[in-house]
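In the previous chapter we treated chains in isolation. Here, by contrast, the input contains two separate entities that must be folded as one system, with a combined length of 358 residues.
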Amino acid sequence: MRPAAAAYHGDERLPEAPLNATSDAEPHCGAAVNPVHMNMSTLQPTLVQSLANPTRFMALSAAVLPWLAGAAALVIIVGMYQAFVVSPADYQQGQTVRIMYIHVPSAWLSMAAYLTVAASSFGLLVFRHPLADVSARAAAPIGAAFTMLALITGSLWGKPMWGTYWVWDARLTSMLLLFFLYLGLIALRASIEDETAAAKLTAILALVGVSLLPVIKFSVEWWNTLHQPSTKLTTTLDAAFRVPLLINALGFTLLFLALHLKAMRNEVMRRRVKALQLAAVRQAGG
Amino acid sequence: MNFSTMNFLTMNFLSMNFLSLDLGPYAGFIWASYGVAASIVAALIAWLVLDGRRQARALADLEARGIKRRSA
C-alpha cells in the first residue's frame, strides 16, 4: 500500500481520482490525499482541495496571471508617478523620502513572502495539500529578492540620512538574518536529493524561522535602534505621503502575487517533467 | 481635482518632465535605489519567463515522444 505523499510531485490525477487509484503510481509521484479533508460520506473533495488540484490550478492560473501582471504593471506605473510627481519632498528628509516608496513595500513584502512560505509549509506538514510545497518553494526566491531589495534601498537611504550605509542595529540585523534564512531554505532544499524529504525538512525550518518575524517587526520598539519606528499609516504619515505609499504597496503586492503564481506554474511543470522523465526510464527498462 | 490640474498632471506625465526633477544633492542615492529595484524585478521576471519556457519545452518534448506518467 502506498503511503500518502507529502507533496505534489507531478501527478495531477488526485484528488479527483478515487483514494485507491494510486497503486500504480511511483511512490514519489502522487498528489497528496488526506482523508481528513475529504467529505467521508461522499468521498468528494472539499473546495480548498478542489482548488489545490494541480490541473485545475494550472488552468485557473493561466487565466488569472495576465490580468494580475497587467494590474501590477498599471498600479506600479501610477505609483511611480505618485512617487516622483505628486509626492512632495519631506521637510526633514528632503527628496530622499522618495526612496520610501520602494523601500517600505519591499520590506513589507519580504515578511509577507515569508509568511507565505511558512503558511504553505504548515499546509504541507499538517494538511498535505498537493500544492503547498509548490507554493513554499516558489515563494522563497521571490521573498529573498524583496528582502535584498529592502536591504539595498535601506542602505542607500541610510547613507544620506544617517551618514552610513550600514549599522548593526536590531532592525537591519534581523532583516539580514531573514535574507540568510531565505538562502538557507533554498540551499537546504537544493542539498537533499529526495524531494519528499527535502520538502519536509525545508518546511520544518521555515516554521522555526517564523519566530524571526516578530523580532523584525518589534525590533524598533524593543531595542534602541537607528532605524525609525514602524510606519503608522494614519498617525505618523501625512496623507501626501500615505497615498503614494499605499499605491506602491498595492502595486508591489500585485507584482508579488503575479511572480508567485508564475513561479508556482513553473514548479508544477518542472515536477511534471521529472515525473515523465521517470516514466520514460521505466518504459525503457521494460 | 479640476480640469486644469488634471491637464497639468497629464501634460507633465506625457512630457516626462518628472524625469528632469531636481532631486537635490542626494539624487544619486534616489536614482540608484530605483535602478536597483528595477534591475531586481526585471531579473526576477526574466528568470521566471525563461524558466517557464524551458519547462514548457521539456514537457512538450516528452509528451511528443509519447511518454505517459502511467501505463494504464
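DSSP finds two helices and no strands in chain B. Chain B has a mean pLDDT of 81. Compare these points with the single-chain example from earlier in the chapter.
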